[in-house]
Each structure stands twice: as C-alpha cells, then as structure tokens.
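Q: Give me the 3D complex with FE3-S4 cluster.
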Amino acid sequence: MKILLAKTAGFCFGVNRAVEMTYQLVDGGHKVATLGPLIHNPQAVAEMEKRGVLVAESPAGLPPGYEVVIRSHGVPRSVYDELSERGICWHDATCPFVKKIQNIALRAEKEGATLLVAGDAAHPEVQGIVGHTSGEVYVFSDLAGLKAWAGPKDPQKPLFVVAQTTFQVSKWQECSEFLKKAYTNAEIFDTICNATWARQQEAEDLSQKCDILVVIGGHHSSNTQKLVEVAAKHTRAVTVETASELQPEWFADVKTAGVTAGASTPSSIIEEVLNSMSEEINDSMSFEEMLNASEE
Ligand code: F3S
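A: Here is the predicted complex, encoded as structure tokens.
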C-alpha cells in the first residue's frame, strides 16, 4: 500500500501563533487561561493543561492572577469589554485573517450595512464576527439557508457578505454566484483563508488519487469535518483523532491511502498516525519511504 501525505496537513499559521504565544507566556512564568479550549484538538489541549494552562468558560470564572490568551477564532467585542471591566490582562491571538472579518463587521456597523455571514452560527469564530456589529446580521450555512433569507429590512442600505475562514470553498462559490444575481448591491468579501483554500484543494486532489483518505483532526473541529466532506465526494473518507482509532480493516483492499489533517492537528499526532499505518498496516514501507512517496 502506498501512502500519500498532504503537504498542507496540520497546524496553520494562526493556530501555530496562538499555541506559541501561550507557551511563551507559560515559559515566562505567567498564569495563563483560555476561554474555551485553545484549539480543537483534545490531545494538544490536554498537553497544555499539563503545563498549567487553565481552560475557563468565561472571564467571570477566572481565579485571580490569570491572564487570558484570546483564541485564534476571536471573540465578540463584549468579551474584551468584560475583561477590561474585571481588570484581567489579555493577549490577543485572534488570527489576522479573522481580525480582517471582524473589521468588516465593524465597518458594517459604522456604515449601517446589513452583514451576511456564511458559516456555522454555533462556531466561536462566527459568534465573534457577529459580536462585532450591532447592526442587522444574518448567518447561513449553505445555499438553501441563504435562499431562505427574507432579505434585508431596508434594501436601500449597503449589504456586506463575508465567510467564516474555514467555510467550504465550493459552497461559497455557489452562494456568491446566487448573491451576485439576487442582490446586485452586495459587496462580497472573499474571506476564506488561504490555508483553508489550499488544504481543501489538496484534500480534493488527493482524494481522487486514493482508495481511502484518512483525515486526522478533532471530532469537533469544523475545518476537519469540511475536509472529510470534500474528500467524500471522490473516495472513502475517514476521520481519526489519534493513531489508536485507525482500523486495520479499512485498508484491506487499499492500494493507495491518502493522509491529511485539520488546522489544529499537531505534527506529533500526524507522525504517530503515519508510523502506525507504516508499521502495522504497511510493513513493507518505512516512515521515510512513505514521506518520500508523498513528495512524488
Ligand atoms: Fe487563521 Fe486560517 Fe488558521 S484563518 S487560524 S490561518 S485556518
């Protein structure tokens, strides 16, 4: 069995920055807390907790002396206000790509524009974006959701459209096409981040060359789930959080297996999965040979 590893697998720039910021503070002797898990990967979060990082629900529940690292997903403005009111020091690891969307939301408020957000309303990034405008907002997760929208209260006002950074590329293209025809005044901002574009594109390409694509990532990670959706159009796509979840029977008749990973997956976990596939399932190929095969 040949194994092809995606070049875009694993930590993206924004997640890497947030993790490094957190560890630098911990190493500098600071007491550090995050509001919710820093990244959508339980193993990486457990490692941080071992090193003293506290995962809190809200600023209200923080013990004295803790400083907050704001996650790469960002937070609503109300959270900054609450941190200030409580005198809690914070370090902002909001990914610059997310910050850019929050600034568009702020502009929407200033210019009286309606804001349309393509994304998952329950995702913290979307809640953070929505929490940057007090104006009219509508969140939709696909074309059907967009078509169900009754339209802006005041059609004369400007209409801004953004996407969650990890929104599925093909869905975004579909929705953008519809919007251009239905709302000719819509200002559409392409806010899916480059790392997401590249990772989804590579998952799609890889899935067409493989009998199975293993996607490594947190079961609650939205960008991991999107990689599975993209790959499932062309091949069998399975998701694992760690090497222990690999099922040898998945690979019974497989000639070529692909491996990719979500933006919150540490390289150590990717390596464990590759090692496990190499040693237990793919006796004939060493880890190095497998990586070389993926370069071809
Ligand atoms: Fe930022 Fe894109 Fe990662 S928005 S957090 S670089 S997936």
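A quick observation: The pocket of FE3-S4 cluster is lined by residues 12-15, 72, 95, 97-98, 165-166, 193, 195-196, 263 (CB under 6 Å).
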